[in-house]
Design a protein that fits this description.
Length: about 400
């Protein structure tokens, strides 16, 4: 059994997601477990170089986590032939230019979503990677959540029968920053000119969740809004928050199911988790959060009768059974990193490339069109990048 080094250029690791999920809980965790196992029994050990403009901050992160290499010059890092993968978790507005640089340098690409702000850009960069023979990946982390993996298990077992509907609730209260509680999210999320907005942030997630678990998205009706038009930024200055901070979207899916997902940074949570999905089918229903999942089969479904004149006596929440943890659920970001590394090094099967990422941008773009025109908008199938097999219809 041999161990081979894999150089990874990591950009955007000073941000919340890049640091917590990708560096600490993925790459460092993979390193600490002894690398990624390949099908032939060999192992791959990631060797990251952390890239950032603030050399002192990046170096402090590297020292804390035992990472040996840092740099501030991305061009020089991309020129290093000993590094194979470029990873980006920076801002959306910077992403396309960075990916193009990395593609030109011959690096394989792995990045956060959304791939870009527009569909044209997303398709263009996907085609550029294909033309260069670059392997690519886009983060689709929600599919790896324990809760949704349990939903998939139920679906694959036939538990639901014919799926009728999917209801999603995502969000929490993000403080405005003007009364003593600092905001939990960066201010650019709420500035339209900086690529902010919950539609561009969350609809790409809902695209791959719906496509892969419940049926390809065929049409969308979306209403976005700015509930809180003024917030306070990291420097304590009040700014105009002109990007949508909530979106209420309905989707028609292949096979006839209807999905509705509310996404909001202006909602207080009275549910089991920050995101929940309820799936209702002819034979059974299930409700999943990030980790837990509860189900109710048709033979266990209660028979309530509407009577507004009497207090409700049924304890509905007690009538559901929890789906047990019959396996160990590792961090979803780490699992997807491991799959992508196997794809790059050993050619293992891989689905979530830049073209799949473009589908998320497409849905966000069409959702904003729906909002603007106040109507349903069809979601046409995207043509796969030239030279690839056609992906599933949109």
């Amino acid at each position: 059994m041999a161990t081979q080094r894999l150089g990874i250029i990591m950009h955007g690791i000073t941000g919340r997601m890049g640091y917590n999920q990708h560096l600490v809980r993925s790459i460092c965790a993979i390193r600490d477990q002894g690398g990624v196992a390949l099908p032939n029994g060999d192992r791959v050990m990631p060797d990251p170089v952390l890239i950032g403009r603030n050399a002192e901050k990046v170096q402090a992160i590297a020292v804390k986590h035992g990472v040996k290499r840092t740099a501030t010059d991305l061009d020089a890092a991309l020129a290093n032939k000993d590094d194979t993968i470029f990873f980006d978790a920076g801002s959306t507005q910077m992403r396309v230019a960075l990916l193009r640089k990395a593609i030109a340098a011959g690096k394989h690409i792995y990045c956060e979503k959304p791939v870009s702000e527009t569909l044209d850009e997303a398709i263009s960069v996907a085609q550029a990677a294909k033309d260069k023979g670059i392997k690519s990946g886009v983060v689709q982390d929600k599919l790896y959540l324990p809760g949704l993996r349990k939903i998939k298990m139920l679906k694959d077992s036939g538990f639901f029968g014919r799926i009728l509907s999917v209801r999603g609730e995502f969000g929490y209260w993000v403080f405005e920053g003007d009364w003593g509680q600092p905001a939990q999210r960066p201010s650019w999320n709420y500035r339209k000119k900086e690529g902010g907005g919950i539609i561009l942030d969350m609809l790409p997630h809902w695209r791959y969740v719906l496509d892969n678990l419940f049926g390809a998205v065929e049409a969308v009706s979306c209403l976005g809004t700015v509930h809180i038009p003024s917030r306070v930024d990291e420097a304590g200055k009040t700014y105009a928050a002109d990007a949508d901070d909530a979106a209420y979207a309905t989707f028609q899916l292949a096979g006839g199911a209807i999905a509705h997902i509310n996404s909001s940074w202006c909602v207080r949570v009275k549910r089991d988790d920050l995101v929940t999905f309820q799936v209702d089918g002819t034979h059974g229903s299930a409700v999943a959060g990030l980790t837990r999942c509860f189900s109710q089969h048709r033979v266990n479904t209660p028979r309530p009768v509407w009577n507004p004149d009497e207090p409700q006596t049924m304890k509905f929440e007690q009538q559901w059974d929890e789906v047990p943890d019959n396996t160990i659920y590792e961090n979803g970001f780490k699992l997807q990193w491991e799959e992508f590394i196997r794809h790059v090094v050993a050619g293992a099967p891989w689905k979530f490339d830049l073209f799949e990422g473009a589908k998320g941008v497409q849905l966000a773009e069409l959702a904003m069109q729906s909002w603007s025109e106040r109507r349903w908008v069809d979601v046409p199938a995207l043509q796969a990048a030239k030279g690839t097999q056609s992906s599933a219809a949109a």
